[in-house]
Design a protein that fits this description.
The protein is α+β, with helices and mostly antiparallel strands. 37% of the residues lie in helices and 19% in strands. The N and C termini lie far apart (79 Å).
Length: 420
């Protein structure tokens, strides 16, 4: 299951909505929590339905600030417990596995003078002791001074109040992968500030239920906050099954489709069933190749943006970050225009039909000692257990293997051997 939380900083422009839709299609989260939508409920409902999320709850903005939306497309039964302009609290009841867990999308007060009220709110929500509980969102506060670079020094009392609130509610930070910060301000190195304001926290019951997860800080092209994506059940293996061939309507939008069908049909001299089999398998390979080629440029831009975000900021790099974001936005806009020019129809909204499997561990020690990922010599992330085991075995095998004894004559040349 995937859950995405993002302070989008306004969805009033159609271009921004299109870029959000493009990103959600790429990541395909089952649950989304959007902060600072700056929209009234009716309009926000239209935006999330456009993005493929017909189920959800929206909280209206207060003028040009605030606004929340929590939406889902899962096999779970969702019960809304309560909500306000600072949070949306729901219970997910899994039909397949028969368990329930609690998720609270949280938006801490941006104003320092209202921060204590946010922690009082968190205390008031701590009313289901035995239920697995995840709180995710923009807390607008740091846990540690190391979560901020440049700008005004953060008040120790502010951070201590946040830490105390989490401790009182028995909530722990669940960590992250990717760039360390989630919020950035300033396009020049002289005024650039970076902070980690967005995070997920959970109680021990949630840790025990969702032992295998990761939270990623994603690259983004709009908003001063980055999306955070929680993925659970990483080691689940969906049972493979034979997929029946289905002709996709989207194939007709490709100019080379007709020629590809004719080429495949004429390349076989057998019976009609034989030709149909050849055409079906050939079309799937053909379209997969087209999709892969289209994604290459976008993936390269996303990788470059990630490298720039991880690097030490300078005026040149901040300018390149802006240019890379513009290029990614142009790709999203170009795809929208592509489909609008060739198909005068709405996108079909596909639900997330993944099956979820969860295993629980008894102690926090097992959770903390779990190796989720290793980086190999090619700087590639290895996440699967078989790959991690092989890397560990190879490392220690090489560590204790003699690589050959060097010729000692070079060292001995400078030593006198007196005869006594």
């Amino acid at each position: 299951m995937k859950l995405l939380s993002w302070n989008v900083r306004g969805l009033g422009q159609s271009r921004t909505v299109n870029r959000l839709k493009h990103m959600l299609q790429d990541v395909n989260p089952a649950v989304i929590f959007l902060i600072e939508t700056k929209l009234q409920c009716k309009r926000m409902e239209g935006v999330r339905k456009l993005c493929g999320y017909s189920n959800g709850i929206d909280v209206a903005s207060n003028g040009r600030s605030g606004g929340l939306s929590l939406a889902w497309k899962t096999n779970s039964q969702v019960k809304v417990r309560s909500y306000s302009n600072r949070y949306i609290d729901v219970i997910f009841e899994e039909d397949i596995d028969g368990f329930s867990w609690r998720c609270t999308g949280f938006y801490g007060a941006p104003e320092v003078e209202n921060r204590e009220a946010s922690w009082d709110l968190l205390h008031s929500l701590d009313d289901m002791l035995d239920t697995p509980w995840l709180v995710i969102g923009d807390f607008n506060e740091l846990l540690l001074a190391s979560e901020k670079r440049d700008g005004r020094i953060q008040s120790d009392s502010q951070m201590n109040s946040f830490r105390t609130a989490l401790m009182d509610c028995n909530l722990d930070d669940i960590g992250y992968r990717g760039q360390w910060y989630t919020w950035e301000w300033g396009r020049l190195s002289s005024n650039n500030i970076r902070e980690r304001l967005d995070r997920g926290v959970a109680n021990p019951a949630w840790w025990e239920l969702f032992n295998d997860y990761q939270l990623d800080h994603l690259v983004h092209t709009f908003s001063d906050h980055c999306p955070i994506l929680l993925t659970t059940g990483l080691n689940d293996r969906l049972r493979s099954r034979k997929q029946h061939f289905r002709f996709e309507a989207a194939w007709l939008l490709e100019e080379s489709c007709e020629g590809e069908v004719l080429k495949l049909w004429n390349s076989c001299s057998g019976s009609i069933p034989d030709r149909l089999t050849l055409v079906s398998s050939g079309l799937e390979l053909w379209f997969n190749k087209i999709k892969k080629e289209k994604k290459i440029s976008v993936k390269a831009l996303q990788q470059r943006l990630k490298e720039l975000n991880d690097s030490q900021p300078s005026d040149e790099k901040l300018e390149e970050i802006l240019e890379t974001k513009l290029a990614l936005n142009m790709e999203a806009d170009r795809e929208k225009i592509y489909w609008e020019q060739r198909a005068r129809a709405n996108w079909l909204k596909n639900g997330d039909r993944n099956t979820h499997y969860f295993h629980s561990f008894a102690t926090n020690r097992k959770r903390k000692n779990r190796i989720r990922c290793l980086i190999n010599d090619s700087n590639e992330e290895i996440q699967y257990e078989e790959g991690i085991e092989k890397m560990a075995m190879d490392y220690f095998s090489n560590l204790f293997t003699t690589q050959g004894v060097a010729d000692p004559s070079v060292i001995l040349e400078g030593i006198n051997f007196p005869i006594t």
